[in-house]
Design brief:
The complex is a heterodimer. Chain A is mainly α. Chain A is built from 11 helices and no strands. In chain A, α4 crosses α7 and α8 crosses α10. By secondary structure, chain B is of the alpha/beta class. Chain B is built from 15 helices and 8 strands. A 4-stranded parallel sheet of chain B has the order 2-1-3-4. In chain B, α13 links the parallel β7 and β8. Chain B is globular, with a radius of gyration of 19 Å. Classes of the chains: A mainly alpha, B alpha/beta.
Chain lengths: 179, 327
């Protein structure tokens, strides 16, 4: 056996935390039919990726193995496995909860952090750029869309909410830094 | 999937733009405005709307923040007394799910309203969230669209539903997720033919933050999907989501660069396909601004594209930069 699991690795508090997400306790219902991983489009191209395994490890409280797994970030949230599970396991909802626990523990991926920062700075995950200003004009649309891009006070509201939720701290973002 | 028995078509609508449509594929915004006007459906502007925020990455970060930022967008539409119309599966997922969660969960609603009170807003839950494809199917119908079509299209199409338009099914209530048909019916109302292809309901690869964080994995999903479409010998892909749209259009460019694999399949949002069938030119609908340009496709469109398109070759489109795009 390559990496035997030691009982000392199991942290029951980890599963308790996961269960804060309604329905996450259903991962205990899994009887290993593999319907989830069989239909998974990610497993289809990366055979080592197995959502069932990640969820089983979570139920066993294997906190470090789960939170350090790069596979935690492979799921595209297509919901195919959640739709097909005969036991009603909330596979994707639970996966998202696992990720948020990872983020809370400082595991936010750099590329994801950039998106978070973009929303905090501009109000858009994907903000306008020069090329698309031109494209908009060519299409006879306003150069800037009538979103937060055209309303500074709306952007201020978004920033206020981000602060009120403590998300700026979670993402390690200092709002006073230059745009 | 059945149409609504109540007449929701009389309710006001606001247009939620999101990020990728207005800021990367403005042709989708332009086409949406044109086809809605042609169908006689007026839409209000949702001034000051932000990112929905993206369901994959923001739910992965912090659910409370996701719900709070989404609820602000819902409040803007509530203030207009209008149902909120999205053109994107990701925005639909975030806004429809938030609307449902806050209606059902008093504790979550109270938590969000406490934050919203800081900016003088409050969520009430009085509006509905709609996606343009399900709206057109339920409130307009393929039959009526067929009546408005002035230039039927002779195209073989790969329909891509995307994931969050129809799933989770318990929440969406749009019929079968394994073998859906409503979008195909809307596509065929334009005269085009929806061609069956292998693993049609598979994901484009972009969602869940995969495109930005594990781009190689995301692209492998995209490649598989494109291979299946290519085998079906189609003229174009028709999607319901600007993010799937980006993944197919920009993704083809990336696959060509990384692996020398050229598919050259044009990518259209449903609003753009409908615009063509209503007689608009590809230029008016921003189809010429896509990365992937295919001369044969324009030839198939006939007079609509006549003399307007010398037929750009793959790679002459616009540079998007590195694929740091969310969901």
């Amino acid at each position: 056996m390559k990496h035997p699991i030691k009982t000392s690795e199991s942290d029951p508090a980890f599963f308790e935390e996961i269960k804060e997400e309604a329905g996450a306790e259903k991962i205990l219902m899994c009887f290993n039919c593999k319907g989830c991983s069989t239909g998974c489009p990610v497993t289809d191209v990366v055979p080592q990726y197995n959502i069932k395994k990640l969820l089983r490890m979570s139920a066993m409280g294997l906190r470090d193995r789960v939170l350090n797994s790069e596979h935690l970030w492979y799921c595209t949230t297509c919901f195919r496995c959640q739709e097909r599970c005969p036991e009603g396991v909330k596979t994707v909802d639970t996966m998202l909860k696992l990720r948020s626990i990872a983020v809370k523990n400082g595991f936010m991926l750099p590329d994801h952090k950039k998106i978070a920062e973009s929303v905090m700075r501009t109000g858009h995950g994907v903000p306008i750029d020069e090329q698309n200003r031109k494209k908009r004009k060519e299409l006879e649309l306003d150069e800037l869309p009538g979103t937060v891009h055209s309303c500074p006070e709306a952007l201020e509201e978004v920033r206020q909410l981000v602060k009120a939720c403590g998300f700026d701290r979670l993402a390690g973002f200092d709002q006073s830094s230059p745009a | 999937m059945t149409k609504n028995s109540t007449d929701n078509s009389k309710r006001n609508l606001s247009l939620f733009l999101g990020c990728i449509a207005p800021n990367r594929y403005p042709g989708i915004e332009s086409a949406t405005r044109k086809v809605m006007e042609r169908l006689g459906i007026s839409i209000k502007e949702l001034e000051g709307a932000s990112c929905c925020p993206a369901p994959g990455v923001f739910q992965s970060f912090d659910k409370k923040t996701w719900l709070t930022l989404a609820s602000r967008n819902l409040c803007l539409s509530e203030a207009l007394n209008a149902d909120l119309l999205t053109v994107c599966n990701g925005c639909y997922a975030t806004l429809a799910d938030t609307n449902r969660i806050l209606r059902e969960d008093d504790e979550a609603k109270a938590g969000v309203n406490e934050k919203l009170s800081e900016i003088g807003k409050g969520f009430s839950g009085k509006i509905e969230v709609r996606h343009i494809v399900e709206y057109l199917f339920r409130e307009v119908s393929p039959e009526k669209i067929r009546d408005v079509v002035t230039q039927p299209l002779d195209l073989r199409v790969s329909v891509h539903y995307g994931c969050h338009l129809i799933k989770p099914s318990h929440e969406r209530k749009l019929g079968s997720v394994e073998n859906p048909s409503f979008f195909d019916e809307l596509v065929e109302a334009t005269g085009a033919q929806s061609i069956e292809y292998e693993d049609k309901t598979a994901c484009c690869g972009a969602g869940g933050g995969a495109r930005s964080a594990v781009q190689d994995v995301a692209l492998r999903l995209t490649e598989k999907k494109l291979e299946h479409m290519q085998k079906a010998d189609v003229d174009c892909i028709v999607d319901a989501c600007p993010f799937c749209h980006l993944q197919f259009d920009q993704g083809q460019f990336e696959l060509a660069g990384l692996q020398g694999k050229e598919f050259s399949i044009p990518v259209l949002h449903y609003s753009q396909l409908l615009g063509l069938a209503f007689g608009y030119s590809p230029e008016e609908l921003g189809i010429h601004l896509n990365r992937i340009q295919n001369t044969e496709f324009y030839t198939k469109l006939g007079e609509r594209a006549e003399n307007k398109f010398p037929g750009k070759k793959l790679g002459t489109g616009t540079d998007f930069g590195k694929g740091g795009v969310p969901t």
